[in-house]
Design brief:
736 residues, mainly alpha
């Protein structure tokens, strides 16, 4: 053990204290200090008068030796009355003066005791700290172990540990600084984490080790913990993680890979291919250092994002666009997915829970590289669940419910899901909620109270799996009721709104219809309907049509409506086809084309069997009253004025289209006959509006021979037919 000689500022302070207390009562320590100073002036005289039986060396030159011998005298009664407490005080004075051998003796006595002193763990901790400050690394390690774990007679004392580690940290003891950093960052029982103190300590450590990537990563962690929850990480945090990643820290590289991947997904692959490539590169670097989760993430990107196989950002962007037309089971870039499978297998063999989940998922469904294998799928999913993958647990529960892997076990599936639901897992809570609704086909008896409880847990999660569907299901439960759960329109509206805010298509459509028609206690408001449709109109052809159709009636923006109605019609939404047929017949499309109008009406009928498009076009061409009167008030077959050519030249483009339509229709028997035939066809296919229109035509003899018998026939037919549903932004005609 090294021996250190220290200066005497402490002892000098004790001497000053002794002289200051001469006029008043003095403590035993102060009296001993004054006595020590008096005797030290003539140590030889002290030896002659008090230590005749055990003389000191000829010449005493060290105060710590002198203090030690005084303690021996007081302990054994040499030249003075025996006083063990006084002897202990002289020993402590000697230790403070640098007597390391005596320090070890006191430490041993505190730990194990002797004839006069029982063991004293608290005192032992003190002497271990003193020895550690003097440079005894063995004492330092023993101090950490004793204060952190405690002993039979001494409970853990992290506060005392932190106090001594702070002293050692000030002396630039690297090991002590790392222990103290771990204590500040992670905390222990009775000592909560202290991020601010950890940040200060890391700043001090980085001044001495400025290129230490591990310290940079830890500083990034500490700074991220101190940020408000729910907000994006600050640039300062990302900078430290980035520096640590560039310095070679695998954990920082994994973090940066996830961060850049998240940014790429937030941009929905628009101009973010470089972010995707950078993310993949970070995962690759971390995987090469043995980071198992990074290896699994690298395989996931190769499987789901074929673009990462290219080092060219522009090429990656092209692959990213192209990959949207393919499912995950069939890649436009087979090489990338083919390389992913060995990485998944390597990560699984290294203990990656997520890799087991992915391999189980692949073997369950099969793909172009792996044949379906129920046994292997169950094996991988069971192992992934055992390793703690929530995704594996949920997928395993799904297959156990269905029994599609040769093994059905509803009770075990329910147990797996309930184990996750206790942790507020949204996906598990959603499945349990649907199970207890009694309509998921599992055969579990319905329990409305449990269903609502689990669905609320799932819906309350922030962007968790199934949160929007859970909120939608709650909306339906409270709108229509479920066994003992009574209807509650306000509660239904609340959950529909939440699901729509989560961009659930069905919920957005329901909220739009609520304000279109004035339902669930809300007043009719087309502008609010338009607002809810705008939430997800890009995700659904039906909502796109409703968004455009309502917008046309609220904003009177024909070009806005036409653009989106054409998109929905081309995508195959039948209502959009019928409305586009009507707009084309009225001349609101880009060009008035009667053949195009009939073609759109025919396409709508072929898609869903609704002949409403035929009726709309025929009614417009024949000048029958309808919802289009407010847009085109003039009857189409009105006679053209004699100065028609001059009027045509003075008109704007939309007016010219209407004028040309009138000119084309005037005295055109063939067009009128075709319109009547389409009305008859629509009537035969169930259009109540077409039947009523034909009854009116035969009653008046307009465009058809007058016939009371035919008029009666079509009126009788109309009674057995249902009226068409109102279009977005319109109320149904009750009288009709």
């Amino acid at each position: 053990m090294k021996t250190f000689k220290i200066s005497l500022p402490i002892f000098s302070l004790m001497a000053l204290s002794a002289s200051a207390l001469t006029a008043c009562d003095m403590s035993p320590e102060a009296k001993d200090a004054r006595e020590f100073r008096r005797l030290w002036k003539s140590p030889e005289q002290f030896c002659q008068s008090y230590m005749s039986r055990h003389p000191l060396p000829d010449k005493i030159t060290r105060e710590d030796i002198f203090a030690y011998n005084l303690s021996v005298c007081a302990e054994n009664g040499y030249g003075m009355a025996a006083d063990p407490k006084r002897a202990d005080r002289w020993m402590e004075m000697a230790v403070q003066m640098g007597d390391t051998e005596l320090l070890r003796k006191l430490l041993d006595r505190s730990l194990h005791g002797d004839e006069q002193h029982p063991p004293n763990p608290a005192e032992a901790v003190r002497w271990l700290g003193e020895a550690a400050v003097l440079g005894d690394t063995q004492a330092r390690d023993q101090l950490v172990s004793m204060t952190l774990s405690g002993t039979k007679d001494y409970p853990p004392n992290p506060t005392e540990l932190a106090r001594w580690l702070e002293k050692l940290s000030d002396m630039d003891d690297d090991d002590a600084q790392h222990w103290l950093l771990d204590l500040y960052m992670n905390g222990v029982k009775g000592f909560p984490p202290q991020p601010a103190a950890a940040e200060r300590l890391l700043g001090k450590m980085l001044k001495r080790h400025e290129n230490d990537a591990d310290l940079m990563y830890q500083l990034g962690l500490v700074l991220s913990v101190q940020q408000p929850a729910g907000l994006p990480l600050s640039n300062n945090v990302i900078t430290w993680f980035s520096r640590a990643a560039e310095g070679g820290n695998a954990k920082a590289q994994y973090f940066m890979g996830n961060h850049l991947l998240q940014r790429h997904r937030e941009k929905a692959k628009r101009n973010s291919s470089e972010l995707l490539l950078q993310s993949y590169r970070y995962f690759t670097k971390a995987a090469l250092q043995g980071h198992v989760d990074a290896l699994c993430q690298q395989a996931i990107l190769l499987w789901t994002e074929p673009a990462v196989h290219s080092s060219d950002a522009e090429a990656a962007h092209r692959w990213a666009e192209r990959s949207t037309y393919y499912s995950n089971n069939r890649s436009p870039y087979p090489t990338a997915q083919n390389e992913a499978i060995p990485l998944f297998q390597k990560a699984a063999s290294a203990g990656s829970a997520e890799a087991h989940f992915w391999l189980g998922k692949m073997y369950a469904a099969g793909n172009q590289y792996l044949k379906p294998d129920a046994a292997k799928a169950l094996e991988y999913l069971e192992k992934g669940a055992e390793l703690g993958s929530n995704s594996a647990i949920i997928l395993l529960a799904d297959h156990l419910l269905k029994g599609d892997l040769g093994k059905q076990d509803i009770e075990r599936a329910r147990g797996l899901l309930e184990g996750l639901a206790v942790q507020d897992n949204a996906a598990a809570s959603f499945r349990l909620g649907m199970m207890y609704c009694g309509d998921d086909g599992s055969g579990v008896p319905a329990n409305p109270e449990k269903a609502v409880k689990y669905l609320k847990t799932a819906a309350s999660a922030y962007h968790g799996e199934g949160t929007d569907r859970a909120a939608l299901r709650l909306g339906k439960i409270f709108e229509f009721g479920l066994n003992k759960i009574a209807k509650d329109p306000k509660e239904a509206l609340k959950w529909y709104k939440q699901a729509a805010h989560e961009h659930n298509i069905e919920a957005s459509l329901r909220m739009g219809r609520v304000y279109e028609n004035g339902e669930l206690g809300e007043e009719r408001d087309l502008y609010k309907a338009l607002s809810w449709y705008s939430n997800t109109y890009r995700l659904s052809n039906e909502i796109m049509w409703r968004y455009a159709s309502v917008g046309r009636r609220t904003e009177n923006n024909a070009s806005f409506a036409l653009h989106h109605i054409i998109k929905a019609a081309k995508a195959g939404y039948p209502e959009a086809c019928r409305e586009l047929a009507e707009m084309t017949a009225r001349g609101e499309a880009k060009e008035w084309d009667l053949n195009a109008a009939w073609n759109w009406a025919d396409r709508g009928f072929q898609l869903d069997g609704n002949p409403g498009g035929y009726y709309a076009v025929a009614a417009i061409l024949l000048g029958l009253p309808g919802p289009w009167d407010s847009i085109v008030p003039d009857k189409l077959l009105a006679p053209l004025p004699p100065d028609s050519e001059e009027k045509y030249l003075s008109m704007r483009r939309p007016q010219r289209q209407q004028f040309l339509r009138k000119a084309a229709m005037a005295n055109n028997d063939e067009t009128r006959e075709l319109a009547v035939e389409k009305l008859k066809f629509a009537s035969s296919e169930g259009s109540r509006e077409a039947s009523l229109a034909l009854a009116d035509l035969y009653s008046t003899g307009k465009y058809v021979p007058k016939s009371a018998e035919e008029a009666k026939k079509y009126r009788e037919l109309a009674k057995s037919q249902k009226a068409a549903a109102p279009r977005p932004g319109e109320k149904s005609d009750a009288k009709k």
